[in-house]
Structures are given as C-alpha cells and as structure tokens.
Amino acid sequence: MLKELLEKYEKKEDLLLEILLECQVVKSDHFISKDDIKEIADYLSIPESKVCSVLSFYTFFSDKPRGKYIIQVCKDIPCYISSDVNVLNIIEKELGIRVNETTSNKQFTLEYTSCLGCCEAGPVMRINDKIYTHLTADKIKAILSEYRVYM
After folding, report:
1. Residue 119 marked in a binding site
2. Residues β-bridged to residue 101
3. 115 assigned ligand-binding residue
4. Which domains does the chain have, with CATH numbers?
5. 74 annotated binding-site participant
C-alpha cells in the first residue's frame, strides 16, 4: 500500500509532510510505523532521522497505532479558561480511556493537541478532520454518541 502511495509523489524532500499525512490517513490504524519511516526515507533518499524529526515535531502524527476516530483536545490556555467544562474529563469518563489511550474496540483514541486555531470559540476538540467548538458537557456526549452510531 505504501509503495503505491509513494509512486504518486515525485521523489522530492519537500513532499515529505504531504506523504506522511496521506500515509497516516489511509492506514486503518492511523500511524507511521518504523517500516513506513524506512520506506519513505529510502524513497526520498533522506535519512530516517529526518522523517522521525518531522513526525515528532507535529502533534497530529503518531508512531503508535490509533483508533478509527482520533479525538484531540486543545490544551492551550484560551480553551482551558474559556469554560467551566473539563472536556478531557468528560471524554475520559464517557469512553473509559485516558489521554494517549485507545478504546479496546479500537474505535477511539484520545490525545492532547496544541492550538486548533479556534481560540475565540473554545473549548475546542477535533475528531479526525472535524473541529467542534463551544463545547458543553451535553454537546460532548451528543457528539460522541453520533460517532458510536457509526461503529
């Protein structure tokens, strides 16, 4: 699968970020493995350390298997102080997992992330590519229920 993905891209180091993003999206476990890192580095003729440095810099990349739905809760101050709602505690209670854990059915992974760019609409969380703003306890529970329907 990765070989086919790589063939879509020119062998240019500048495309590393785009390759990593697509690789992570198309894989069912949404992470970049050590084998992936080696194959991408070989394809682009760059050191594996270069790939690893990009992976570790951006919070949206993972080197561990994750669930189908990746829930990222903003940990920056504007989201933290904009409401009495403790988004993280509500999600942890609803799903029975803690930060950096995945539910046993591999449906949800819970993570912290840096700013999602919606400080005026906090608290904020992202599930895969969709951002949810102005979160309340009831809204969080309703959102999670919607995703559970699709399981």
Report:
1. yes
2. 110
3. yes
4. 1-57 (no CATH), 69-149 (3.40.30.10)
5. yes
